[in-house]
Every structure is written in structure tokens, then in C-alpha cells.
Amino acid sequence: MRLRRKPEFKRVDYHRHKKLRRSSWRRPRGRHNKTRKQKKGKFLMPKVGYGNVAELRGLHPSGYREVLVHTPGQLEDVDAEKEAVRIAGGVGRRKRLEILRLAEDKGIKVLNPEVR
Q: How far apart are CA 37 and CA 15, in angstroms?
């Protein structure tokens, strides 16, 4: 199945104020706001119809389902074809290197392989 590309939901008036980021969506609430009224040609607003297919929902962009791992022993339950591993932030260098070595042996994709 193909992942559909979601439209960019831009924040209203982000181009007028430097401190507003383009991607920080906030619902438009002004009385005369054209985006809130959903006028043609104005910014898009998130709606139910933009949701993804149920089978693809929650997947990493690489197509794998994410599994958070804290210990090397948790790699035994991971299915290498369908799941990818994300090493938890609190894991230290020694254990992280051990997890990376075991994942490489088992052919499991690691989403954050960098060693700090």
C-alpha cells in the first residue's frame, strides 16, 4: 500500500510575523478569519477526510512499525520484517552498543543508531 502525502497545514499569518513558525498549527479563531470560514484559496484546515488508511496509520515513514527498546533482551520479541527498533533515550553507551550489535546480527532495522 502507498502512503498518501498529507497536505501542509500552515498557521494563519505565519508569513506576517517572524516569531510564528509555518508548521505550528493553531486553530484560527478570529471572527472574520477567512481560514476559519474555509474560504477558497486560503490555508487548509485539518479535517476527518485527511486521515490515512487504517493499515498504514501509526507506521514509521520507512514502513515499519516502531518498537521502543530499553534492554538487549527485548530484541527477541521483534519481527525483523514488520518492525523496526528505536532505542530509548535513557539507554547508556555500553548497552546501546550491545543492542546495535544484536540488531545487526538478527537483521533488525534500528531507527536511531547514532552513538552519543
A: 19
pTM over the 0.85 mark: no
Residue 40 and residue 71 in one domain: no
Q: Using the 8-state DSSP alphabet, how is residue 8 labeled? A: P
pLDDT at 74: 96
Tell me what the mean pLDDT of segment 55-61 comes to: 87
Tell whether 99 is covered by a domain.
yes
Q: Give residue 37's domain range.
A: 1-57
Which three-class secondary structure string do you get for 51-115?
Answer: CCCCCCCCCCCCCCEEEEECCHHHHHHCCCCCEEEEECCCCCHHHHHHHHHHHHHHCCCECCCCC
- How far apart are alpha carbons 97 and 56 in whole angstroms? 31
Q: Within this chain, do residues 2 and 42 fall inside the same structural domain, yes or no?
A: yes
